[in-house]
Design goal:
The chain is α/β, with parallel strands linked by helices. It is built from 11 helices and 9 strands.
Length: 275
């Protein structure tokens, strides 16, 4: 699996995929920069009058539920991406926290417009079980994937993947990625990820870049994005600790680490298990 991840990362650097992101304004700059750091290019178009055209020129599409005012634009772009066979990555931000978010996610999934879902445990459980009581924005303690509930979490996540026909990445201290048949477990990363706004959104954008460059191997592409983020989180934390810096510097160091990451660093830092 390590070789497949290294290949996906190299393909992304070589192909420079264009990622069209309909994402929230809080993290839009960081999302664009991490796509660039991975070797891709970014465009953040949300106007209904142009999103189909922009999507047609792109290699992958991000739909982030933090941009709910762009619902119609999301649907137009997703339909065009599906027509062209381009990967569509859904980030169900705060799914379950409001009916509007839940219904939009359900519509995208019911229409078969999504290729990959990237969310935390609360968000994915809300999609899978229709739970409206989840806070959504941050994973509830009872919803976190742990070593103790790993088997149970893997089983329901794989079932959800098969039901939706998507590759699902559930992220946290432990990341789970499944296509319904194969499941990868990735450990590591930095606890500082939870101390900055937009780490999840950045990972979603990074995932889209890898998927855009590797459309025929989405499971491996998604695992590569998870692995890169965890390795780079570790490298970024190490740097800020050395320099006695804080969380704002960590965000910058994280993007720096993605842009400077070598194949050797990635291979050495990966902590991946196939189930």
């Amino acid at each position: 699996m390590t070789d497949a991840i290294l290949k996906a990362a190299q393909n992304t650097a070589d192909a420079a995929p264009l990622v069209h992101s309909i994402t929230n304004n809080v993290t839009i700059n960081d999302c664009a920069n991490i796509i660039l750091a991975a070797g891709g290019t970014a465009i953040m178009a949300q106007d209904e009058r142009e999103v189909e055209e922009i999507t047609a020129h792109s290699d992958a599409l991000v739909l982030n539920m933090g941009a709910l005012r762009a619902q119609e634009a999301m649907l137009l772009a997703a339909r065009e991406a599906k027509r062209l066979g381009h990967p569509v990555v859904l980030d169900p931000v705060a799914a379950g926290a409001s009916r509007l978010r839940s219904e939009m996610c359900s519509r995208l999934l019911a229409d078969g417009l999504v290729s990959v879902i990237r969310g935390n445990a609360s968000e994915i459980r809300a999609l899978a079980a229709g739970e409206e009581q989840a806070s959504g924005v941050e994973a509830n303690a009872i919803d976190r994937v742990t070593e103790q509930n790993l088997t149970e979490s893997t089983e329901w996540l794989a079932e959800f993947s098969r039901k939706t026909g998507t590759v699902v990445m559930l992220t946290g201290k432990i990341d789970l990625i499944t296509d319904g048949n194969r499941t990868a477990v990735l450990r590591g990363g930095s606890e500082l990820m939870s101390r900055i706004t937009g780490a999840g959104c950045m990972l979603t954008s990074l995932t889209a870049a890898y998927c855009g460059a590797n459309p025929n191997t989405l499971f491996e592409a998604v695992a590569a994005a998870s692995g890169v983020m965890k390795v780079c989180g570790t490298l970024a934390e190490r740097r800020v600790r050395e320099e006695m810096e804080g969380t704002a510097s960590f965000r910058t160091r994280l993007i720096d680490a993605v842009s400077l990451l070598t194949a050797e660093q990635l291979a050495e830092g990966l902590r991946i298990q196939l189930l």
